[in-house]
Every structure is written in C-alpha cells, then in structure tokens.
Hints:
Layout: H1 5-22, E1 39-43, E2 48-54, E3 57-62, E4 75-79, E5 84-87, E6 93-94, H2 101-105
Antiparallel strand pairs: 1-4, 2-3, 4-5, 5-6
Amino acid sequence: MPPTEAGEALLPDLTTLFAVLASAERAGTVPLTPPVEPLRVRYSGRFRRYGRPAFGVWTADTIGCPACGNQVGPWTVTCDWIRISLGCPCGEVTHEHGLAFSEIWLLLPDS
C-alpha cells in the first residue's frame, strides 16, 4: 500500500526526532538512566535455547563455545544491561549465542 499524504507529512518530523535520539548527549545534559556497572557472574552448567517451530513441537539446543565446543562451562556471564556475553575458559567471548535474557537470568544464582 503506498504511503498516504498524512504519513508523508510526518516523515520530516520523525526523521528529526530519530536523529536527535540517536545523537550523542549534548554537553551539560544528564542521561535519562544512570550508568550501571556490568554484572559479572560465573556459572558452571549448560545453557539451552528453546524454540517452538510448530504448535505442540518444542526444540532445545545446548549452547557451546564457538571456538572449542565447550558446553558445560564454567562460563563467565557478563551483562551490561544491553546484551549478555558468555566467556569460555578457553578465552573466547561470544555475543552470538542467541539466548534471551530470561533463558540466562533464570539459571544464574542470586547476585
């Protein structure tokens, strides 16, 4: 469906708004959220990614280190509140694990 005239009229304002949101903070301004230290926890065990490709069908994949294939850790889990990285004892750190925050967070001990 082609854009309407009303939608086309909104584009310049939306472009300006998103440019301001994506730009660096101006000098003298305070960020909306305070800086938070990353959370770093050690975890020995498996991380599993669950999926549901069809109704009544569930899958579970065990996450492994892309460098050495390690699946049981101990992992160094680092959360910077934007993304979670898994560090393997071999030294490899990956963000490409595909796990959701909830799939990792529920396994971690209370910190």
